[in-house]
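ok so for the tutorial part 2 we go from a plain amino acid sequence to predicted structure tokens. step 1 is just haveing the sequence, like this:
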Amino acid sequence: MTTRDEFKQAPPFAFSVPGPIEVADEVLFANAHPSMSHVSPDFVPVFGDCIRMTREVLLTKSGQPFLISGSGTLGWDQVAANLVESGENALVLNSGYFGDSFKECLETYGANVAQLKAPIGRAVALSDLEKELRSGKKYKIVTVTHVDTSTGVLSNAKEIASLVRKVSPETLVVVDAVCSVASEEIHFDNWDLDIVLTASQKGLGTPPGLSILVASERAMNVFKNRKSPPSSYYASWKKWLPIMKAYEAGSPAYFATPPVNLIYAYRASLNSIVLGDLSLEKRLKLHGVASRRVKDAAKKLGLRQLPESEGEAANGMTALYYPEGLAASDILPRLAKRNIVVAGGLHTEIKDKYFRIGHMGITAVNEERGDIETIVRALEEAVKEARAAKST
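step 2 — the prediction. this is what the tokens look like for a chain of 392 residues:
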């Protein structure tokens, strides 16, 4: 059987991309749990724990979690299939690549989708949202990408939800929080959100493969009062709601096999986030500290952030334009030589002009690892070496 010590060997590269992130040893060890039936008496309470602790991470007492095998993208399908009926209107607040993708998903299920598209590097202005909501068009949902991983832009989900409640109270507020849960502040109940969808492989510090979504009572009532059946088989809450209810109550149920080992890993990470020595509030503050350290170092090197406003820059990642006269081929290989792997650009209009550094989870909160200082040192050395090479 694999021993814990075997998981403590450092990887050859520091994986500093904005997801999937490096995960803690105890999470890796939990993921290596012996194979087990999803209806085993030993597994049932593990799944139940994950459902309950997911609520704690998002600060909700009444939200209904759905933990389903799949990527974060499955969250879009759940929203489109269960909450929006064919021909209904959806409004997408677009701050990057993932707004375009959510729009395409909603259209696939028959929604009429309008977009408010922010300039590159900015979030959608609240004034633009209010104008659209007051235009006379009734929207079933408004979606916002809390942190768009393609740009590192942070949208103000609290203010967006408040505005929607004031102007169009029946409209559901859907937050794509794949790149923000457990690295950015989210108060599900206090902000009066309807959907927060995310995935396991970013701030939640678990290997990829688990789609995580929480729905408000308002959203569940909209679902229960649909005129037509859900427009997906696998993503249907008619199938999954009884499963979630059963496992939380301590009984097994079956629709499709859950990722048993991944659920064990997710519980290990949730135990650290919810029950560990660091409170959730402290963890979020440490993400802010790590973010400031990386961004300040980049600024000293003359690197410009993609987000144009400090208040719209994510804490879990940093998106930086390449220095003038330098390109990906000048920077990324030099970072890799120093065992730092970062992500290239993703936004289609500027993908060759910038790169992205992830600093979520243990990279941000476990200061003893020294990940942030390693990233900063490698960035400083790579940029200085690249500039020196160009000047010779």
